[in-house]
Amino acid sequence: NCDFRSLNKMNFITRLSALCLRKSKMQQRHQSSRRPAVPLGSRILTDPSKVFEHNMWDHIQWSQEEEQNAKEKATENSLVKVQLEDQEILPEKRREELKAEERSSEHTKINSTNSFSRKNEMFEEGEKYWKKNYEGGSTSVQGYVYNEKQAKSLTDNPQGKNCGEEPGRLESFPGSDATYRILEVGCGAGNSVFPILKVLCNTPGTFLYCCDFASGAVELVKSHSSYNSAWCSAFVHDVCDDALPYPFPDEILDVILLVFVLSTIHPDRMQGVVNRLAKLLKPGGVLLFRDYGRYDTAQLRFKKGHCLSENFYVRGDGTRVYFFTKDEVWNMFNLAGLTEVQNLVDRRLQVNRKKKVKMQRVWIQSKFRKPFLLSLNNPEETTERLPYR
């Protein structure tokens, strides 16, 4: 029975990996919407004269000259940095005021009606700022924008404790009866959520959590005809806010999807985000990661004056993007206590056949696992019963 369950889990993870790849393809605007004639990853360019016969070629090897040219372009577009005072989403003074107000709720019991009203005002202010400056861009820009759900969470739980800190006192939570749980971070409008839900509805005992920074995106997910709270819980969450609790305990997730999300976060905060997500995984749980790689065409196309810091840029719509190496990715997840299952550079050649333009695409694709603990009675065996620390 154990072997059968393990096999089912591995098959499920394989299907989720395929869904992640499908999501990443949706994000590449220049790629044809036609279904590929050959399986993903198996179209190899062996004859350069046929480069414009297809939209995408897999497993591209760069020459030393191409590598050097890419480095030079990245160095050139990084010479002029964005001024520090222009890098904040909210003015520094207002950002500190919001943070101070949040901290004060930990020490003072405020009338719930007045407290909710004030945080609703903060939400409206942040929402206006978002719509004015960033609407239509990435939903993972980090700032201090509150909505009603976050305000209620702070009111009901003024200590800001994670619900996983005292699991014995937690009677129920969304998905508490499930035996296999998945979290997608940065779900957006649900490009991956609903394909996953199609699998879940035929797989008893499974449950999907999905979160996004933008309340509008989460509302789109919840209003979709395929959304069902019986096997899915969508919620607003800022992954950079360590004090903001998740709606479930730590160490209960089997899979976390982190696809084109980490690159939107400031490099100084990435490790904290990864550390927090690692705590959510149960021993043996896996984190599936895919994001932009160093010297991707998107990085080389930036003009001077868009660089925030090394390999970190701001787009014209105000959203941010970082370009990783696989060593950086390995270091982050290793420091969080996860072990490598897969960590590779996915290089592809994307072409515009009409304009005869070639684009070198680079992504990092990884899978990291939270280790099982060795059994105290038999060091050669592992167990899921002991909590991972």
Q: In words, what does this structure look like?
A:
This protein has 389 residues and is an alpha/beta fold. It is built from ten helices and 13 strands. An eight-stranded mixed β-sheet has the order 1-10-11-6-5-2-3-4. The longest helix is centred in the first third of the chain and has 25 residues, at 2-26. It is globular. Mean pLDDT is 75; it is low at 25-36, 90-169 and 383-389.
Topology of helices and strands:
Blueprint: H1 2-26, E1 56-57, H2 64-77, H3 92-104, H4 112-133, H5 148-156, E2 180-185, H6 193-200, E3 206-212, H7 215-223, E4 232-236, E5 253-259, H8 267-280, E6 281-292, H9 297-300, E7 307-309, E8 312-314, E9 320-322, H10 326-335, E10 339-352, E11 357-369, E12 373-374, E13 382-383
Parallel strand pairs: 2-3, 2-5, 3-4, 5-6
Antiparallel strand pairs: 1-10, 6-11, 7-8, 8-9, 10-11, 12-13
Helix pairs in contact: 4-5
